[in-house]
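Lab notebook, bench 4. Still working through the backlog of constructs that have no structural model yet. Next entry is a single chain of 298 residues. Request: give me the structure tokens for it.
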Amino acid sequence: MKTGFSSGDIMVDRRADYARGLLEAGEHDAACDLMADAMALAPQWAAGWFRLGEMCEGAGRRAAAVEAYARALALDGSDRLGAALKLELLGGEKAAMPAAFIETLFDQYADGFEESLLAKLDYRAPQLLFAAPEAAKALPAAKALDLGCGTGLMGERLRPLVGRLEGMDLSGRMLAKASAKGIYDNLIHRDLASGDLGSGYDLAVAADVMMYVGSLDNVFSALNAALLPGGWIAFSAEKSPRADGLELRESRRYAHGESLVAEALRNAGFHLQTMETAMIRLDRGQAIDGLIVVARRS
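Model written out:
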């Protein structure tokens, strides 16, 4: 089983490269056919099946795309490429966001992450969270957790206002970037979906993180356990047009409805303090509406 973007066979790789060239030239059907020929020679190449799925999807060959994504998933059970999410978008069963997919995605983006977010995607979550009504009441904090800390963009804002600052992320390469800034007292390599978020925090912040979570129930329960009584959480989420909605978008990011978020907070023992709608970033040139949320543990 090969999950990299080389099959290990130069002839297969050449066919795959030619197929990509055809795709870029708008020859979708020809690209699919050539990539399918390549996969006949390298049936254990998981990334190749995923690429074939994308090509077939672009050509409108839904059944072939489903088959290709299913082959990719069968070969790579950890699902580093997110094939299960592609299958869900094509009408398959709902899937949890694969941890290996998130880790792979952000490991790949680590080097140019900040430039991409700030210069190209107009990323606004940290400043919006700081400007949110009620957020000022959570600061200064004795001990804070920066969930999905990435390279430390949120941590840079928190550092002057926090006694002890800890960051948690699933991507080792992102954590290396954050470590180089010297702003965190402790960095933790962990999946926030693990349910273990530590303990004793006065504040937990998650900027541009809930989009990779799906159902919020378990994460909110873990946050309740991690926070001291009266502790605060502040986070952003992509906004679903349906108040009770939870939708997986083509970007393979989740959008959450306002009432769904409010109910999940209430069920986990939080009191909602404020929830506002704001443009949080761009995606393919389009403004993405998000929710800026501040809540407090009972």
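Notes after review: The domain at 10-95 is CATH 1.25.40.10 (Serine Threonine Protein Phosphatase 5, Tetratricopeptide repeat). Strands lie at 141-147, 162-169, 186-189, 201-206, 227-239, 246-248, 254-256, 270-283, 286-297. Flag for follow-up if needed.
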